[in-house]
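Input (structure):
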């Protein structure tokens, strides 16, 4: 299993990707929506770590969901 992350928006009550995304019919998805009512705060160190992680993903430095689960179990 691999995980893909892409931005999107709601249009006419349906989730629409902002870019061309090809998913097989019946592919299970998880949606995490931005919420103006809830927010979180990060320290400068946490924000830097998050930005570094985002940059790593943008470079393609990712692992599969199966590998992540294996690492979390150890």
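Output (sequence):
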């Amino acid at each position: 299993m691999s995980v893909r992350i892409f931005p999107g928006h709601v249009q006419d009550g349906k989730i629409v990707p902002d870019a061309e995304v090809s998913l097989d019919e019946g592919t299970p998805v998880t949606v995490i929506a931005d919420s103006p009512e809830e927010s979180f705060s990060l320290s400068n160190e946490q924000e830097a770590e998050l930005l570094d992680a985002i940059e790593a993903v943008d470079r393609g430095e990712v692992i599969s969901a199966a590998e992540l689960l294996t690492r979390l179990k150890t």
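Notes: Residues 53 and 68 are 14 Å apart (CA to CA). Residues 44-58 form the longest helix (15 residues).
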